[in-house]
Amino acid sequence: MHYGPVPRRRPERWSFTVGGACEGGGEQGFSFARLTELPTHEVVADMHCASGWSAVDERWSGPLARDVVELAPPRSDVEHVLVFAEYGYSATVRLEDLMSARTLLATHHDGASLSDERGGPLRLILPHLYTWKGPKWLRGWNYLTEVERGFWEERGYHLRGDAWREERYSYQE
């Protein structure tokens, strides 16, 4: 499931950007090649949608999000991150969740490169959060010093979205 059409893959135009309240003050860009040079990890995890469906034992691989955070660190006063993807989609994620040892910048699913429909070339996987927190067609994130609600959070979904606590809607905050 996704919002909007599946984007046409254009590797020559694809980039990943880390910005906002960065420790060094400036924005940092990464090519897909640079991201895939980072160590690859595999995570087997369930996917949970706020609408009620789940997919169990999905196998994802790619670099850890925290490896990118280490290359482009936030300022010490950052607690949240606004991750963004194609078509202006965004999601609010706590820095602590992005830094989890199980949070991936997935490039592969079940051993194959991510298809466009699955979010290729890069998808954020946060196994403990609902799937709207891990957008397909990921393009980067901005470190935040004040909370900014993303696409679904602006439309009444929970700021954190912990699947195990069933944090679906903003009235539960």
Portion in strands: 25-35%
Oligomer classification:
single chain
H-E string: EEHEEHEEHEEEEE
Strand segment tally: 11
Radius of gyration: 15 Å
Low-confidence sequence ranges: none
What is the helix content?
under 10%
Mean pLDDT across residues = 92
Strand order of the largest sheet: 2-1-11-5-6
Shape: globular
Largest sheet geometry: 5 strands, mixed
The total count of helices amounts to 3
- Class computed from helices, strands and strand pairing: mainly beta
End-to-end Cα distance, whole Å, is 25 Å
How would you characterize the overall build of this protein?
Strand 5 (80-85) and strand 6 (90-94) form a beta hairpin. This protein starts with 15 loop residues before the first strand and ends in a 29-residue tail after the last strand. The model has no long low-confidence stretch (mean pLDDT 92). It is built from 3 helices and 11 strands. By secondary structure, the protein is mainly β. A 5-stranded mixed beta sheet has the order 2-1-11-5-6. It has helices spanning 32-36, 65-71, 95-98, and strands at residues 16-20, 28-30, 41-48, 54-62, 80-85, 90-94, 104-106, 108-109, 112-113, 123-125, 138-144. It is globular.
Strand and helix map with partners:
Blueprint: E1 16-20, E2 28-30, H1 32-36, E3 41-48, E4 54-62, H2 65-71, E5 80-85, E6 90-94, H3 95-98, E7 104-106, E8 108-109, E9 112-113, E10 123-125, E11 138-144
Parallel strand pairs: 1-11
Antiparallel strand pairs: 1-2, 3-4, 4-8, 5-6, 5-11, 7-10, 8-9
